Amino acid sequence: MNNFTFYNPTRIEFGKGTIAKLGKLIPSGSRIMLTYGGGSIKRNGVYDQVIKALEGYEIIEFGGIEANPQFETCKLGIALALKGDVDFLLAIGGGSVLDGTKFIAAGMKADSDDLWKLVTREVPIKDAVPLGCVLTLPATGSEMNPNFVISRRETKEKKGNASPKIFPVFSILDPETTMSLPGRQTANGVVDSFIHVMEQYLTVNINTPIQDRQAEGVLLTLIEEGPKVMKNPNDYEARANIMWSSTMALNGLIGAGVVHDWSSHVIGHQLTALYGVDHGRTLAIVLPGVMEHQREAKGERILQYARRVWGITAGTREEIINLAIERTVEFFESLGVSTTLKGNGCPEEAVSLVGKRFRGEGMKLGEHGAIDGKAVEEILSLRSGY
Known about the structure:
This protein is an alpha/beta fold.
């Protein structure tokens, strides 16, 4: 096991009715800016619960944060928060709203006028306004981690940063808030959470049995609970198990002391930036391609994954690896998530255009630093569908 520091200060309030605790979680006298997305919280009752819980607080609102939060939009949020002398941010929504809010929190305290440098890591995040979260879409794990990812429409980029300064002070996780989610968003969240685990698990074996079994537990739970909630969106227990699985997938616990990959995410971000493909769906395209392309380097871990997660024990090494990849694809497809470029509306030339970006930047991805621009093209070719 590698050396590690594990630090996570976020308080979690989980379960039915926990939005009512907001008034006890935010310091009295705070000037709060509520942040949210397209307004679904005003249709499903979550907004009304929040306003009731915050009676007596001074509040301003900033809505319209996109599914992939845009740099230009977040800059408007920073300006509004500064003008309103805000000292606490409350994100209401999914990971995109929370990511945008984290960037707003850091941007409000930034030394540099070039706020994009906070995203590209050219300027460090030295401080941030405190923030909390009412989660309505489990997917990114942003409710209990220090990460954010921001897109920039002008340059068609999608970049991310992280800092201990932007851990949420608290996050409220009420599974009932997720029951009105469209099936597409629910499926995306399950896939996103699943692949967060795989990026930390399907790497190299360095004798981390606790982390391995914790990761496998999250994967098995998503496999069991995902189909239930797609069949019955009002299944509270399934919603609760998915919500907690999503948080556990990326709160630092299963990733402590292990080797990480993240190539599927970095490649997938380009598909979102160029073609607007949902984040979870980009991952469903890329991960199977990475597994196939890196089958030798990842072979031992794929065999463990096949045995412990899918119960595959019979066959040759190659047959077991093939079947593990096949089962993974089948699981994503069973949720209604296509695993090819074609199935997600990307043109055939996406293979070369994305590869060109990595060639230009000279990036090498993966736990072994072995995935360059040429390899990215090979991975996407495996999943093109053309």
